Amino acid sequence: MTLTTNTEGRRTRTALNIGGTIVTGALNSGGTISGGIADLVNTYRYDGGDKMASLAQSGVSGGNSLAAKFVSFTFDLADQMTDTRPYSTSSANAANIEVHSRYNFDGAERLNSLTHATSEIAAGQAWNGTAKLPTLTIAAFNLIYDRDNRLTTLASYTNRFKTDFTYDTTDQIATAATAAITGLAVPSFLPTNESYNVDNNGNRRTAAVASQSAAGTHNRLQTDGNFNFTCDNEGNLTVNTAIIGGARTEYTWDQRNRLTTVVERTSGGVVQKRSFYNFGNRQMGQFQYCSAQGLLRKKSKMTNGITLALARQLRM
User: Fold this and answer.
1) How many other C-beta atoms lie within 10 A of the C-beta of residue 287?
2) pTM tops 0.90, yes or no
3) C-beta contacts of 149-157 below 8 A and 24+ residues apart
4) What DSSP designation does 94 have?
5) Which has the closest alpha carbon to 73: 61, 60, 86?
6) Cα separation of 251 and 71, whole Å?
7) Which of 100, 108, 262, 307 has its CA 20 to 30 A from that of 86?
8) pLDDT tens-place string over residues 35-44
9) pLDDT at position 144, please?
10) Which long-range contacts (CB under 8 A, 24 or more apart) does 45-51 make?
11) How far is Cα 153 from Cα 145, in angstroms, rounded to an integer?
12) CB of 127 within 8 A of CB of 140?
């Protein structure tokens, strides 16, 4: 690969050769390549603010076949990218544009509109979240914020609906209300409205407004509505209990927080299965309860000494 840079040290050209060997000198200092197959050439151009303005890719005569490509980038005075235009030719040609993407920003330099179209988007145009669209728009988003920089509205042209958000006094989301955008086709689906209740630490609450991360539990999840969870001081899950039925799974860990044992119990506390793990968290063996013999029987291969010792300890 041959690299060319300008006086500011910015790369201006990259030439790729497959299978060749360097004959003399460094490639960025006049060196040459012998043999191989020329593959492609990338040419880079920059604007007055040292931002990349375009990238062109082309093939080389006698080299591998390659479709020419060109993409241009436009920035505003705040160095925010406002437009990208990829073309299926070696230069900017409106007839060969693939997708024109327009990025609009509000006065606080926050992205408030993103529009993609398969033709050139006219200057000053961008989707504003209504039925009015630039020509040949294929996807678009509109974002509105409050003075605290919180997103209050997200509209999607692709989905044909918008969602409005509200927040509580601690800046945590409180509601999300979705509605179809007037004037556009009926959405294929419309999410239901949602409301959220969180504690002062940002943890979601249950429907009964009880925190799912109780005091003194270091903000760890205590329940998901199907299971209750208990963790040790290191944050390792130690007990997982089914709310319905009461069956539970117990986990033990060594001093390096490596899983050593998993025990599955019925709601009455009867052990159904024990699994053992080595220092690499690989399962060493497993015993399952056999009601006919009233003990745990070996299921997977372990060393004879370990098997015998464990069988004696686990006899019911």
Assistant:
1) 24
2) no
3) 149/108, 149/110, 153/129, 155/129, 155/181, 157/127, 157/133, 157/181, 157/184
4) G
5) 86
6) 55
7) 108
8) 566 678 899 9
9) 97
10) 45/12, 46/10, 47/75, 49/75, 49/79, 50/8, 50/10, 51/75, 51/79
11) 7
12) yes
